[in-house]
Amino acid sequence: MEWYWALSLLMGGVLLLMMLGTPVAFAFLGVNVVGALVFLGGEAGLVQLARNAVNAVASFSLAPIAMFVLMGEILFQTHLAHRAIDAVDRLILRVPGRLALVAVGGGTVFSTLSGSTMANTALLGSTLLPEMRRRGYHPTIAMGPIMATGGIAMLIPPSALAVLLGSLAGISIGKLLVAGVVPGLLMAALCVGYVLLRCGMNPALAPTQQVEPLPLRERLRPFLIYVVPLFGLFVIVVGGILTGLATPSESAALGAMGALAAAALYRRLTLDALRRALMETTKITVTILLIIAGSLTFSQILAFSGATSGLIGAVEALNLDSLVLLLAMIGILLMLGAFMDQLSMLLITLPFFMPMAAAAGFEPIWFGVILLLVMEISLTTPPFGLLLFVMKGVAPPDTTMRQVYLAAAPFVGLSLLLLTAVVFMPWLATGLLDLGGG
C-alpha cells in the first residue's frame, strides 16, 4: 500500500472516530487494532499491539504525571488553594482593575501548585468572577485574565502536559519543565501589563471599589502563612530538577508529599478530602496512560506502514527554509486547536513533527516549549477552545459564548506575542537551563 493511502486510512480513521464523539483513548485503540491487522501481520500484529501498550505505560518516566496531578488535587480538595488566592486578594490594593490583577496573581500562584488548566480556570471563575460582575467589571477584564492564567498552568511546573509531551517526544522531561518557567511568568507579566493599561486608559472597564484599609501587617500575614509556604513546593520541584539533586520523578514525589504535609499542618486534611483527591488523580492518570499506550502504538504503526517516512520525504522534497517549516507546524497546530483538544493535537502531529524538527536541526527543548505555547493558545481559540467552555460553565447564566470569545481574544493576542518572542529569542526558553548548568 502506498504511503499516502496508509496515511489516509490511519489518520482518517482517528479523525472520523473523534468526530463521532469517541473518547480519544478509544479512538486510537480502535484504529490501532485495524492498523495491526493490516500492517503488522494480522493475529501476530494484535499480540504485538498488546505488548507495545504494556511497554508504553511501564516507563518510570511517567511517574511524575500521577504525582503532579495528586499534588494539585490535594491542594484543591483541601481548599488550601482558595486560601492562597484570598491572601493574594488582601495584598493587592488601590490599583486599576484590582480584582483582575488578583485573578492573574492568584492564578499564577495556583499554576505553580496544580498543573491543571481546567482546575485553575474553574477555581478562579467560581470564586472571583461573580464578584467582578457584581462590581460592574467589563466581561473582557473579568473573564479574560482568568482564562489566560488558566493556560499558564500548562507552562509552569508542575505541568502534566509537559511531562506527557516530554515522554511522547523523547525530550528531557526535567529540562522541559524548567524551560516553561520563564515563558509562564512572562505571560503573567503581559496579562498584568494589559490589565493596568486598559483599566488606566478606560476606568469604566473596572469600576473603582472601596477596599477596607488594612495595616500592612494584616495584609502580609495571610500571604506569609498561605502563599509563601505553598510556594516552597514549587521551589522544591523546580529547584530539585534545576540543580540536578532530584530527578523529575523524585521531585514530583517530593511535591506530592509536601502538599500532603501542608494540608495536615494547616489542619485541612480529612479522609473525605484525601479520598476525593485520590479518586480524581486515579481517573486523570488512567486516562492519560491509556492515551499514551494508544498514541505510541499508533506512531509505530504509522512508521511500519511507511506513512511517516513518506510524508517526511514529501516535505523534505519541498526544501523549505527552517523558519518556514516551523511556522507551518505552528499554523497546523493553531488550526487543529480551533477544533480539537490538546492531547489529540499532540498525538496526531508528534509522529511527523518530531522527525521533521530533528532533520531541521531544531533545539529539542526550545521546540518543546514552542509546542506548549501553541497548546496554551489553543485552549482559548474559538470555537472549541477547552477553557472557553469551562469559563462558560462557571460564569453567570446570562453570559453568552460571544462574550467569552471576545474576552479571550486580547489574551490570545498576548500569547501570540509571547510565542513570537520565543521563536526569535530562544534564550527565553533555554536561559534558565543555562543558568542552572542544565
Would you mind describing this structure in some detail?
By secondary structure, this protein is mostly helical. The chain has a domain at 60-269 and 386-435. It contains 22 helices and no strands. It has helices at residues 3-19, 24-39, 43-57, 63-77, 80-91, 98-114, 117-127, 129-134, 139-152, 160-169, 173-179, 181-201, 216-243, 248-265, 271-305, 307-317, 322-337, 342-360, 364-378, 386-394, 401-424, 427-435. α12 packs across α21. It is globular and about 75 Å long.
Give the helices and strands as they follow along the chain: HHHHHHHHHHHHHHHHHHHHHH
Task: Supply the helix-strand structural class.
Answer: mainly alpha
Which range best describes the helical content: under 10%, 10-25%, 25-40%, 40-55%, 55-70% or over 70%?
Answer: over 70%
Low-confidence stretches: none
**Separation, N- and C-terminal Cα atoms:** 45 Å
From the alpha-carbon coordinates, what is the Rg to the nearest angstrom?
Answer: 22 Å
Number of helices: 22
